[in-house]
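User:
I study polymers; will you set down one protein's sequence and backbone structure tokens?

Assistant:
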Amino acid sequence: MTFGSTDARRVAITLMAGLAFTAVAAMPSHAAAKIQHLVSPGGIEAWFVQDSTVPLIAVEYAFSGGSSQDPAGKPGVGNMVADLLDEGSGDLDSNAFHERLDRRAIELGFSATRDYFRGSLRMLKDNRDEAFDLLRLSLTSPHFDDVDVERIRAQLMSGLRREISSPNALAGRKFLQAAYGDDHPYGRPASGTLQSVPTIDVDDLKDYTRRVLAKNTLRIAVVGDVDAGTLGQLLDRTFGDLPAKAELTPVADIEAAKPPQRFFIPLDVPQTVVMFGGPGIKRSDPDFMAAYVVNHILGSGGSSRLYREVREKRGLAYSISESLLWMNHSAMFIGSTGTRGDRAAETVDAINKEVRRMAEDGPTRQELDETKSYLKGSQMLALDTSSKLASALLQYQLDKLGIDYIEKRNAVVEAVTMDQVKHAARRLWGQGLQTVIVGRAPEAVAQPASAVPAVAVPAAAGVPAVAVPSAK
């Protein structure tokens, strides 16, 4: 999984397709028995579940790279490529391309996460040939026409300008910058900046596509009403003409900056946003599942400790959540909430106390048993559609888990012990928190909003921030 949202992709979909894509696919225990490791005649590999319950096909795929492959000084290139691949390709301009998507109720989308350039494709069975052909065109012959590039650039710039007044966006950017610095790709904004996006040119887009979209890093998951032989031919036609090998810039392993740290970003908004976190535990770490379980107890869902302490007992926030984030070269835990400006300090104090208590004492036996039971049962619901199952199968590949992981996963959860979760809690939260607070300055909270001057964003940094002494 990764941090940070990407801009919504344009999706062509009709009511019929929308209803079809919510149909229930095989449940996990049944689907696991049918997962095939398919190799096409041309050598394209995929994890595949053949399911004729409903006449649709869901495809998820990813190339290594993502925003970590943006050129130095030009964050946002991968994100811009993702927005432009469906804006005309082959012999189709942007309007003709989207008209074909609309006519056949085909969903096609792309996104750039920190480590991967990802894509998805959804179609009814009868439209599979056209759907895969449109995907082939978008990956192998995108136009990047000037008129489309400038239209997408204008949309991205508009979104970036809105982020200047978005406390959540400002908090997220500052959090990653503080954790990883400006010299590592993880510390740079994946969607770009007001300074970088205007400098991205067509050559940057073409070079990124050439370097990143290659067969040797491609991972694919397919769930739906298609047989293995037909799917193999579709995969060869769709991905076979891509370059054999990616040309990726190496990314160094890095640990997030050790807490405690605290940053304040003044912004004239009614509600103060608090983002908190610190170094996490990587997916390949032996302590990962124990960390996943104890993290659910602390910060996931409406029954978590943070929710009870911050929302239910003190009424400080409407919601609060915290989750693990793992990437190829680092890991974090990260949480957020929103509160009244005059109660921000109280909210931060309550979060710190609960995190410290979990680090020192760990969970109770009842909390551990109930959480393990919940996580085992919720797996069934988490994979109840073709799209969800395809997404999970792709993620398991990216996380380097076995093709039988769905079958093994509940046993892995059940095997987690109290000693293991206490150890993981100390690793995660024993050092305290990195905290970013975005809102009105404490001395201005009692004033009407109009009395608080707007804060200009420095052009070089893109985020106004002042470090304040960390609370021990």
Summary: Confidence is low (pLDDT under 50) at residues 1-33, 444-472.
